């Protein structure tokens, strides 16, 4: 069987982000499964020994804290989740350090909050640290900084975090390891679903039901968050392989398992990636069809004439979403006006406006179309 170009790219990747979910590292009673963890470490160490650089984005802090804290199930309230993560992250980092030491490999713990990638200055800081760790031959083990992240500033799921980290480190591939061997057209727990081997564009995803965030017992993200994360990575030029942690050896070897998502877009600059995926949007601009075509197809700046409505609380310099007449987010960009200024300008052509208000509402350089 000849491998698709995506799988060949994953197999040949030099710098790889591997994301592993809680369900792959912990027992159903809620404690670390050291045996499965060490099998994963064996596989990662093998790839490093072969000259690869691996960033491990590992979930499992909350789940690993359940048993040591004497809890019987995953806590539902944020404070207890954070307490569990505080206990569990220590156990997780310790287990990785011990396990990688079998191969004389050092691990470095990197705990990130959403702010660390949403704010541009923090983004560059995290980028520098991760690059330095990799350059020094250390295996970075990344997780969300659960103990301090509040509901408002959470990534919420590590699949998204892994996609953002992939871009941050300029990864050649992202491997998402879960408890299911591939993406199916419906939840495989229900039976009768068909496996999807390759995703090369939106057409391959038509009719796929990945659930909302229907996670299994210990995870949080579910398949929908993996699909969303795969989209973030591959539309930014990074191919993705999704499979089970039981298939990790093949995933990091011949890449002949699971579902492969082809890189559909080009690598974005740090600024454009931040604009497209990381920055929080403070408002929404509704566009007419002509403006959608100008912005998305012809890559023009957005002018006041093509805007039909404005929502949100934003100042000039904030990030906003640009919506089509049907409400689809077609682009994101940095708006040049405060929200109060726009209502009197929208729908009017530039030459009808006073000279000081003739500048573009979103300049083409500050605008990224979304697929
Ligand atoms: N279309 C689908 N294809 C594959 N798995 C699906 C699909 N829809 C829902 N799922 C479920 O999503 C689960 C994986 O998500 P999750 O439990 O969050 O994993 P992890 O802890 O590895 O992040 C699988 O166990 C599977 O039952
Ligand atoms: N940061 C959390 C995990 C969040 C998460 O996305 O979990 P999962 O769906 O298992 O990848 C933790 O370490 O428990």
Automatic annotation (TrEMBL):
Residues 283-362 form the PUA domain. Coiled coil: none annotated. Keywords: Amino-acid biosynthesis, ATP-binding, Cytoplasm, Kinase, Nucleotide-binding, Proline biosynthesis, Transferase. It is found in: Cytoplasm. One of its GO terms (molecular function) is glutamate 5-kinase activity. Pfam families: AA_kinase, PUA. It catalyses: L-glutamate + ATP = L-glutamyl 5-phosphate + ADP. One of its GO terms (cellular component) is cytosol. GO terms for biological process: L-proline biosynthetic process. ATP binds at residues 19, 178-179, 220-226. Its EC number is 2.7.2.11. Belongs to the glutamate 5-kinase family. This is Glutamate 5-kinase. It comes from Saccharopolyspora terrae. The lineage of its organism: Bacteria, Bacillati, Actinomycetota, Actinomycetes, Pseudonocardiales.
